[in-house]
Amino acid sequence: MTVSSLAALPDQLPDARAVFAGRGLACERGGRRVFQGLSFTVCAGEALVLVGRNGSGKSSLLRLMAGLSRPAQGSLTWNAGDIADDSEAHHGRLHLIGHQDAIKPALTVNENLGFWARYRGAGPCASARIADALRAFALERLAELPARYLSQGQRRRLSLCRLLASPAQLWLLDEPRAGLDRAASTSLDAALAHHRAAGGIAVVVLHAEDHPPEARVLDFDAVKAGG
Amino acid sequence: MLAAIGAIIGRDLRLALRQGLDSLLAVVFFVLACVLFPFGVGPAPETLARIAAGVLWVAALLAALLSLERLFQADYEDGSLDLLALGPAPLPAIAAAKIAAHWLTTSVPLIAAAPVLALILNLPPAAFSSLVLALVLGTPTLSLIGGVGAALVLGARRGGVLLALLVLPLYIPVLIFGVAAVGASQIGLAVQPHLFMLAALLLVALVLAPWAAGAALRQALD
Q: What positions belong to coiled-coil segments (chain A) (predicted)?
């Protein structure tokens, strides 16, 4: 992986001292308490890895962090300001890669990625960014292919391209390695490293064994036992 | 934010063109429903002329309803709605953009087909212009009200049936004034009052429906 293929990523993100934190969070799904008493802090340049068994609420926490749902208790803050107070600014600074890939089968790879980049206001250099993003995950040869012909792993790579096609400081990734081959996994690691070096924050749901170096780990099983 | 709304409308139009089935289905349904009536009530020209306006409006209304269920469903299922909500456009604007695209892809073809069907149903040519005008003013209201319904039934099982139950009663005012506009021009009365009423309904729907649909989408996302 060469440095040039990550050209889409900025070298320095605007908020170099950002702190993203949650205090005493509780989450309810369908009337059932999924977790409670959960707290975390991540600073600019750090990664937080969420581990835990299935159904322990890792994905639910990502949705809380994104501001898509509200915590039953507790609060989430960005630089000490509650994210619910200015949800538009919070949405603008984050990327969420969930289990669903939001890919339209009838559109080409380029159109799929181009829509999300334009929708998020990628600006005048959007097409160059999109080309860079596709190159970073080795999809440039498939750019004009309708997305319905993509394999599972290629769809995953296309989702990950969204991270590079428009800049954002907070990356929320739900099992980003699912379905990726070794090369794409390496590309993801490089992108994450670059993102953190530029002052970005990443929150990643992963299996315990393959988390990036020097990441903080939030173990949901321990939270459950303690809370 | 305007660029974001334009991007949504552009994407939905492109999707509708690529997978033309949905909008084609609405037009084909509209044509078939209208063509069935002469077989049902008999080919007497004066009978057909009398019921033409009502038949055209009811058929157009049901045709518009046909594709409404999918309005937010596809985006909800593939996760696009989450990402749209995380973008710069607020949920009411997202709802408005998708409703606008829906109107352009389903109702505009219906309006184009309406004069031909009016000919089959023996509607006097003098009433054609008021029919088209009434449809132009009335169908956006149908799409807006339907958009609220589609957002409300998002994620529900058998949402289509529920949607019809929710939305059809609310279509009655548009139906009344739409048919009245055509009827008035058939017997030589002023058409304008009815068109003004349709325009008033459209303005009310324009102001209220995107907010209601946005609130319903918020519920579905949570």
A: none
